[in-house]
């Protein structure tokens, strides 16, 4: 009587992985016989004469029933239970270190494919930056909003949409903590406009409605600073009513509570109780009063942009800002920032 005896040999294959070999020296559980990878079109792997991997055990990729090699994430071989296995420990590529495919929502930013991967206002559902101002579709509410979501944003031009319409504006991110939106720019002798309520889209003179940035208090939640002929003025103003930026308003007092003024970036704000006023109809944008008292007088720390007799709404002279006493200029820019956001 002939007796067939199946000889089982145990061996070690690479990286400490235990193989189970049959009497012919072939690993059990592997696929068809092969002599090269070309014989294994589905996997491209020929190991010890059999196409690999080919599992006959558990569907979850655990230890196989009846022999075979345990799946080992990170060995560079795609095995049952793995969606991928690139053989590295890089978490930011297409295959995560747990051998699952990278996807939007997995909490890992995939290099070259995703800007972000988080549940936040700064990250869109498709894992691209939101509200970074790079396009109309990704407009922020303001430069301050943009900076709060993307703190590394440099000074430059960005899209914002504070109201119904999008605007491409200059965002100043370096001066005094950043987050300043350029709300107006006007050249010498250009016609002025109601900068608080109206837009101006001239080729050089520019303005979005300042009111679109304000959420309360008739504009007293905003801070302002100015750039004259390219030079940034250190004086900053808070608690300024929107009426300060109307043109050719009646000659009257309009802000009885005064303003907060800081003469420099490192200087604290102090309350100036002077009643803000317009002395005549060619006082246009006015954070000032008609007398000089070292507080908000038009020849001191206040600010006044005026026209001329018979040309009430033409930009002709600047007073205040601790420097100007009726000087002509080439251009002036107004920057605003929301506080408490």
List its salient traits.
single chain; 341 residues; mainly beta; 3 domains; ten-stranded antiparallel β-sheet; disordered N terminus
How are the SSEs ordered, and which strands pair?
Blueprint: E1 9-13, E2 17-21, E3 46-47, E4 50-51, H1 143-149, E5 156-160, E6 167-172, E7 180-187, E8 200-201, E9 206-207, E10 222-228, E11 231-238, E12 253-255, E13 259-262, E14 270-272, E15 276-277, E16 283-287, E17 303-306, E18 317-320, E19 324-327, E20 331-338
Antiparallel strand pairs: 1-2, 3-4, 5-6, 6-7, 7-9, 7-20, 8-9, 10-11, 10-20, 11-13, 12-15, 13-14, 16-17, 17-18, 18-19
Q: Which geometry do the CA atoms define?
A: rod-shaped
Radius of gyration: 35 Å
Report the average pLDDT across residues.
Answer: 82
Stretches with pLDDT under 50, minimum 5 residues:
1-29, 54-70
**How many individual β-strands?**
20
Derived from helix and strand composition plus strand pairing, the structural class reads: mainly beta
**What portion of the residues fall into strands of 2 or more residues?**
25-35%
Number of domains: 3
Separation, N- and C-terminal Cα atoms: 93 Å
Q: How many helices does DSSP assign? A: 1
Helix content: under 10%
Taking the sheet with the most strands, its summary is:
10 strands, antiparallel
Oligomer: single chain
Topology as a string of helices (H) and strands (E): EEEEHEEEEEEEEEEEEEEEE
């Amino acid at each position: 009587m002939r007796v067939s005896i199946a000889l089982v040999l145990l061996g070690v294959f690479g990286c400490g992985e235990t193989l189970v070999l049959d009497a012919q020296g072939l690993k059990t559980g592997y696929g068809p016989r092969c002599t090269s990878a070309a014989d294994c079109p589905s996997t491209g792997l020929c190991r010890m004469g059999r196409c690999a991997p080919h599992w006959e055990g558990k569907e979850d990729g655990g230890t196989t029933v009846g022999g075979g090699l345990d799946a080992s994430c990170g060995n560079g071989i795609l095995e049952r239970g793995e969606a991928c296995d690139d053989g590295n420990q890089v978490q930011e590529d297409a295959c995560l270190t747990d051998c699952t495919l990278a996807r939007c929502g997995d909490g890992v930013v995939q290099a070259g494919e995703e800007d972000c991967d988080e549940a936040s206002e700064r990250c869109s559902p498709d894992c691209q930056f939101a509200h970074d101002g790079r396009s109309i579709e990704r407009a922020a509410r303001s430069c301050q909003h943009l900076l709060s979501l993307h703190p590394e944003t440099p000074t430059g031009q960005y899209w914002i949409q504070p109201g119904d319409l999008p605007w491409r504006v200059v965002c100043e991110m370096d001066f005094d903590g950043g987050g300043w939106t350029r709300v107006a720019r006007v050249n010498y002798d250009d016609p002025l406009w109601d900068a608080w309520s109206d837009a101006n889209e001239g080729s050089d003179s520019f303005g979005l409605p300042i009111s679109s940035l304000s959420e309360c208090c008739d504009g007293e939640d905003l801070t302002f600073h100015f750039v004259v002929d390219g030079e940034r003025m250190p004086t900053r103003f808070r608690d300024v009513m929107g009426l300060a930026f109307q043109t050719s308003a009646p000659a009257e007092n309009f802000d009885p509570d005064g303003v907060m003024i800081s003469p420099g970036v490192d200087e604290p704000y102090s309350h100036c109780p002077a009643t803000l006023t317009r002395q005549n109809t060619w006082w246009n944008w006015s954070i000032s009063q008609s007398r000089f008292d070292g507080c908000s007088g038009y020849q001191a720390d206040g600010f006044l942009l005026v026209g001329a007799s018979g040309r009430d709404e033409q930009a002709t002279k600047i007073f205040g800002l601790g420097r100007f006493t009726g000087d002509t200029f080439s251009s002036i820019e107004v920057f605003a920032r929301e506080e408490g956001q």
